[in-house]
């Protein structure tokens, strides 16, 4: 088990079933505002929601460890220890889903349920890994994340009906540090495929995907849903890769359904 580089910054709300939400790249825990305090039914007495800033993002320091999503997954286990939580429903969107899958591989006994949103259990292709390294090297060389704006990253993250959210997403991307962006890109590039882990996860699971997600499309979501023993697949119309931000009502409904299954 690793040691945290510093205390994880965590946003927390509600009581009830522990639910940890892991954010997308290159955002922070602020992306979960609609899950923490925007809509009824997800917090309150139904769920104790914890949304940490992952290494280097938001208010959490990066530390000096080599890039690895296994380390980030172990950070989550340490967070549960510090919060006095034995088992939790773990949810992640995009990069957060990769961390959730790493956690499921390393700490399966601590899962009460699993939420995988707009993510995938397959490894990167050679071309995808090369592109991640290109971005990592470029942001470090420039000491700036402006490259992400130049390539209009928000356009790939949002569905065609979510243009009104572009400024908000651009603002969140701009808050990321070059060091965190490079570290996370290299950690994601090195992650293994985890489809073979899913059949052994005998907990309620939910797989959520935006119908217009072109980054981790519906075909990837179906692979995960088919591999999990007890999964429900939710496809959110018109949403892109950031379904929790683009369609919070539909996203939260899928999470509430998962919490109800876990409670039963």
UniProtKB/TrEMBL annotation:
Molecular-function annotations in GO: hydrolase activity
**Keyword hit for Disulfide bond:** no
Q: Which InterPro entries match?
A: AB_hydrolase_1, AB_hydrolase_fold, AB_hydrolase_sf, Epox_hydrolase-like
- Domain named AB hydrolase-1 is located at 19-254
- The residues that cross the membrane are none
Keywords (alphabetical) are:
Hydrolase
Record's GO cellular component terms:
membrane
Protein name as catalogued: Alpha/beta hydrolase
């Amino acid at each position: 088990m690793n040691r945290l580089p510093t205390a994880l910054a965590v946003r927390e709300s509600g009581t009830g079933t522990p639910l940890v939400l892991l954010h997308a790249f290159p955002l922070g825990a602020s992306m979960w505002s609609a899950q923490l305090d925007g809509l009824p039914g997800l917090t309150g007495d139904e769920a104790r929601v914890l949304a940490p800033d992952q290494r280097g993002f938001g208010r959490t320091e990066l530390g000096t460890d080599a890039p690895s999503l296994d380390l980030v997954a172990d950070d989550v286990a340490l967070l549960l220890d510090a919060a006095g939580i034995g088992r939790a429903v773990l949810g992640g969107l995009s990069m957060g889903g990769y961390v959730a899958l790493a956690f499921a591989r390393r700490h399966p006994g601590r899962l009460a349920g699993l939420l995988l949103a707009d993510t995938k259990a397959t490894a990167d292709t050679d071309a995808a890994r090369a592109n991640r390294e290109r971005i990592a090297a470029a942001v470090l060389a420039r000491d700036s994340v402006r490259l992400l704006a130049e390539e209009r990253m928000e356009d790939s993250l949002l569905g065609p009906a979510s243009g009104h959210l572009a400024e908000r997403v651009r603002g969140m991307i701009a808050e990321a540090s070059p060091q965190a962006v490079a570290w996370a890109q290299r950690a994601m590039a090195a992650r293994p495929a985890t489809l073979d882990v899913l059949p052994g996860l005998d907990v309620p699971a939910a797989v959520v995907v935006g119908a217009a997600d072109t980054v981790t499309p519906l075909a990837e979501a179906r692979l995960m849903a088919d591999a999990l023993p007890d999964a429900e697949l939710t496809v959110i119309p018109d949403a892109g890769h950031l379904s929790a931000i683009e369609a919070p009502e539909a996203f939260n409904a899928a999470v509430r359904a998962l919490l109800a299954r876990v409670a039963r």
